[in-house]
């Protein structure tokens, strides 16, 4: 997308035409183009409210809101892309700044799309729930390859960004209209499996729900049909057995059985927020600066060959789903979280230690698998850790924390482009160091899951 905007001449008026060769991208233009998606990332601060909206109104309204934001954002992108054909420099500046509005709306649509993926998983039962969440996140992530096709179409057909963006808007309308219909008829699996109640009884239940105060209602007790799956992250090959004389867990209450406020202030949930926030900030940094990082390594002289390879690797994340499922079944969700850390550290080490473009391809593969693990494991873990009635808001809070963490990306990007002449070594090293606290957070979540399993085993024994 950055290449499309550069070729379109967006923010070219920031360059000093008397000292800069015509059609050359200057540092000020690059920094501004980097800031557009980074600032759009800050719209994640609205995610808790979006999550509350999804919890209250359901996925159908979330799909409608997502569609409205995406269509409006693409319409603004189409309008903003006409800046290069505007002779009036003042008008061109105003149209270029419209890109910030367009990308912010597209970002809000992205947050709603992520929340919708989690809500879709809740329509299923047992371990299928986390599998559906993982699959939808992988497909959602792989969709970013569309930018490569847009860039290819723009160059192959020699058309402007305005035409490409307008065509993308038309394609979006064709795709989202059937999706809106799907959500108007979708029924959760639990409702299909439960006996059909008379309309009068359903009306009475809804009326009773409305009379209850939220503070008096506790989340439903968790049923552990798949305890061997979600709790097996503390397998010790027979070296450790629960001690029946240990009463330290007698007063322990699982997070999902606590009040809404207690769930959001619990140690396990805060550790998960820290984990996700740091990883998403690192993920957004890698996505938004990849074009300039590879350019510094010499990719511009190769007609952006390695940037194309990077884009083609994005759908590879889908291939990581079987590995995610295997790791979660064998080591539990906390094992999956540690897998995210290992992949992130390995990819970051390649960026920091090697300037060889061929070696970076290995990093591209690791990065694709990393994104698959990150979103699949994290959001698949949410319905296990928390009550389903607050999952939407919980995911929204995590997005907001990630948006706050991403504020660090703006000064780092400007520092790399303007002060270090495109050398991303120092910022990449900072992002690599930020992964280390995530190992501690995943370890803490593992301790919690072990304690919860001991409680379940004790309860089953006493029953």
Stretches where pLDDT is under 50 for at least 5 consecutive residues are 211-247
CATH-derived architecture: Up-down Bundle
What class, by secondary structure content? mainly alpha
DSSP, total strands: 0
Whole-angstrom Rg: 24 Å
| CATH topology-level fold name | Growth Hormone, Chain: A
- Helix and strand run: HHHHHHHHHHHHHHHHHHHH
Provide structural commentary:
With 463 residues, this protein is an all-alpha fold. It has a single domain (2-14, 24-187, 257-462), classed as MFS general substrate transporter like domains (Growth Hormone, Chain: A, Up-down Bundle), CATH 1.20.1250. It is 71% helix and 0% strand. The protein has 20 helices and no strands. It has helices at 2-8, 27-41, 47-57, 59-80, 89-121, 128-142, 146-156, 161-185, 189-193, 199-211, 227-230, 260-264, 267-296, 305-313, 321-353, 357-385, 391-405, 409-419, 425-433, 436-462. Helix 3 (47-57) crosses helix 5 and helix 15 (321-353) runs antiparallel to helix 20 (436-462). It starts with a helix and ends with a helix. Mean pLDDT is 80; it is low at 211-247.
Short structural description:
This protein is mainly α and 463 residues long. It has helices spanning 2-8, 27-41, 47-57, 59-80, 89-121, 128-142, 146-156, 161-185, 189-193, 199-211, 227-230, 260-264, 267-296, 305-313, 321-353, 357-385, 391-405, 409-419, 425-433, 436-462.
């Amino acid at each position: 997308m950055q290449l499309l905007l550069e070729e379109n001449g967006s923010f070219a008026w920031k360059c000093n035409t008397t000292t800069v060769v015509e059609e050359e991208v200057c540092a000020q233009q690059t920094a501004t183009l980097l800031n557009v998606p980074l600032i759009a990332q800050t719209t994640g601060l609205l995610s808790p409210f979006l999550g509350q909206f999804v919890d209250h109104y359901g996925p159908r309204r979330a799909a409608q809101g997502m569609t409205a934001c995406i269509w409006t954002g693409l319409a603004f992108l189409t309008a903003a892309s006409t800046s290069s054909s505007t002779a009036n420099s003042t008008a061109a500046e105003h149209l270029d700044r419209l890109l910030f509005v367009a990308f912010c709306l597209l970002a809000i649509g992205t947050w709603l799309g992520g929340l919708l993926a989690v809500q879709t998983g809740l329509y299923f039962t047992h371990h299928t729930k986390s599998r559906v969440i993982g699959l939808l996140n992988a497909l959602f992530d792989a969709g970013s390859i569309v930018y490569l096709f847009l860039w290819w179409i723009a160059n192959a057909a020699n058309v402007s960004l305005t035409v490409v963006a307008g065509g993308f808007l038309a394609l979006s309308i064709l795709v989202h209209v059937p999706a809106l219909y799907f959500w108007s008829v979708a029924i959760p699996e639990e409702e299909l499996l439960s006996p059909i109640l008379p309309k009068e009884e359903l009306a009475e239940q809804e009326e009773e729900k409305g009379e209850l105060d939220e503070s008096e209602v506790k989340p439903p007790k968790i049923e552990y049909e798949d305890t061997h799956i979600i709790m097996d992250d503390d397998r010790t090959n027979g070296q450790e057995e629960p001690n029946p004389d240990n009463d330290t867990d007698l007063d322990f209450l699982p997070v999902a059985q606590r009040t809404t406020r207690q769930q959001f202030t619990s140690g396990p949930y805060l550790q998960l927020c820290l984990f996700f926030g740091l990883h998403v900030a690192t993920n957004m940094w890698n996505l938004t600066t990849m074009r300039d990082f590879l350019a510094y390594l010499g990719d511009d002289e190769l007609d952006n060959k390695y940037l194309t390879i990077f884009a083609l690797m994005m759908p590879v994340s889908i291939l990581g789903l079987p590995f995610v499922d295997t790791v979660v079944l064998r080591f539990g969700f906390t094992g999956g979280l540690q897998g995210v850390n290992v992949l992130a550290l390995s990819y970051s080490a390649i960026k920091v230690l090697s300037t060889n473009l061929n070696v970076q391809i290995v990093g591209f593969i690791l990065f694709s698998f990393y994104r698959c693990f990150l979103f699949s494991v994290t959001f698949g873990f949410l319905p296990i850790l928390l009550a389903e009635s607050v999952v939407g808001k919980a995911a929204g809070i995590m997005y907001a924390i990630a948006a706050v963490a991403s504020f660090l990306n703006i000064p780092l990007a400007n520092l790399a482009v303007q002060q270090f002449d495109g050398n991303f070594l120092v910022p990449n090293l900072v992002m690599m160091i930020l992964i280390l606290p995530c190992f501690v957070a995943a370890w803490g979540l593992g301790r919690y899951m072990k304690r919860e399993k001991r409680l379940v085993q004790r309860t089953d024994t006493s029953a």
